[in-house]
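Structure ticket #2291
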Amino acid sequence: MKYEGANIKIIKSDYRLIALEENPDLIFLDPPFDYDYLELIKLNANVICVFSRGKAVFEYLVKKINEGYGYHCVVNLTPANGVNAPTMPSNTFEIIHILRKGNCYFDHDYALRILEKKGKKAPGVLNFGRPTSGKEFYKYAKPLAVYLYLLSYVPKGSKIFDPFCGIAISAEACKIRECKYIGCDISDIAKKNNRKDLFADVEYINF
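Resolution: structure written out below.
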């Protein structure tokens, strides 16, 4: 699968059936709850954003660090009236592990704009919240701002891969950031995304 053509490609497929012809600059790893992260060990990019769920996540992180990745994390707080995964209380938080290889890039100005904050350094603890009803609501979707913030770790126009794209909030963020994007999911759940204005030129592929 090439990044050429439509900037946003969403593929109905298991990611293991997809062979990327170019290495992505950033990978979002947000698999279903209790997915075995060690199955993802062969996926590589300059930046890997690992959402902390599932078994073997820490063993996975240790293996990637031993491969030469640097590590730090951000904490995404979910407010008490928010909506979270069904196995987690609604007033909890989620750690997002950031693995980086090679030259470390971070666009502080862009990150601060996403957070609507001023200063010279983006905070390590974030509070994005989640809509609980209306057009922007989908029960298990993370806020768009989470993905926009994580795209601060790569320049505009980078190549992004999301092997578990779900409702494709990450694809929305990549369109706004003007990145090239390939996302996979085994279901058609991406079509439940209500932001049709942002998805007018998306290429959907039944693999």
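Closing remark: The first strand starts at residue 8 and ends at 12.
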